[in-house]
Amino acid sequence: MATGLEHEPVNSTGGYALPKQCFGTSHVPLSPAVRAGDTVYVSGQVPVGGDGVVVKGGITEQTEQVLANVKAALALAGCTMDDVVKTTVWLEDARDFGAFNAVYARHFPRNPPARTTVESRLMIDIKIEVEAVAYRPL
């Protein structure tokens, strides 16, 4: 008897694979957020406001904007900052770590995610970039 599921993809454990879902758009070839099953991946967010311009100010202002952008990308996939389990942070200057960390702590006040923070030359003239991985069961 046909169930209507015969043509669905099957994963390696014999279950049905969930499709990848992409959320949002960008002027570069990436999706701001991608859901694969219960995991949501947020592309590296930079300190660009809604007008497409890098925010004025130093690491404090840029970190606030980046984390606002992470929050907005998460929301596209139905997640919140509380769902974040891992972040990766790139700082243009390691001497900005203290100021960055103070802002970051306000955005993750309880049960902060695992985090990797490195100093790196970034693709555009900015001080910070942050990517995130969230877990939110469907």
- Order of H and E elements: EEEHEHEE
Tell me the number of strands: 6
State the helical fraction.
10-25%
Question: What general outline do the C-alpha atoms trace?
Answer: globular
How is the main sheet built? 6 strands, mixed
Oligomer description: single chain
Radius of gyration: 18 Å
The computed structural class is alpha+beta
Neighbour order of strands in the largest sheet: 1-2-3-6-4-5
Query: Total number of helical segments?
Result: 2
Fraction in beta strands: 25-35%
Q: Give the N-terminus to C-terminus distance in angstroms.
A: 29 Å
Task: Name the poorly predicted regions.
Answer: 1-7
**Mean pLDDT score, rounded?**
90
Q: How would you portray this structure in words?
A:
This protein is α+β, with helices and mostly antiparallel strands. The chain has 2 helices and 6 strands. It has a 6-stranded mixed β-sheet with strand order 1-2-3-6-4-5, with helices on one face. A hairpin with a 2-residue loop joins strand 2 and strand 3 (39-45).
